[in-house]
Amino acid sequence: MGRRVRFRREFARDLRDQVRWLEENRGIEWVERLRTGLDEAIELVARLPAIGPAEAKDSQDRAVVRRLLLRKLPYVVWYLADDSDPDADLWLLRLFHARQQRPLAEAGLPPRKPRKR
Could you name the domain of life of the organism this protein comes from (predicted)? Predict the structure, then answer.
């Protein structure tokens, strides 16, 4: 048994938009593939919340925004995991096509810090 996974309003909106686009441009089989991919992703993050690489952390380094690329589909899920509480709900924040711009500010998070080279 894993942690409970919940949807943020923005994620639900993104999902609606992606489904609408797929229905109009790719067909129902792509919609079903997206639904299957999301079901798999939800099961995975519920069991292994730290599976995705970190995109951002809160000021106390507890709540971490992570990303997960859907298997066999060009979609990225951002989710929030509170690493300090193993029983805390996981929140799906956003759903993007892999080629979409993904600014953290849209998820209510601070911008990324530049990576050191």
Answer: Bacteria
